[in-house]
Specification:
Layout: H1 4-10, H2 14-31, H3 65-93
Amino acid sequence: MLSAGGLSKTICNPWRVAMRLFPLCCALVLSGCLRAPEVVAPPPPVPADLLRPCAGWTGPMPRTEGQLSDALIAEARGRACANARLGAVRQILD
């Protein structure tokens, strides 16, 4: 017959198992500290006026040729403004 002390030696002691896994867990945790952290540079500041939308045609739907030509000219100016702002932002970010 086994005594109480002998029984604890034959059955797997949970603390003993935990202590066997402890060095492995410590090695895994500390391995994350060995790599140098990546340094991410913040983006350069972009002026707020370059981020505002450019105005295109804001009037009602054109019904005559004159209104249509005004709308086309306004849209062309708005697109040119937007393209110029995108070019300026690209130069800042590059």
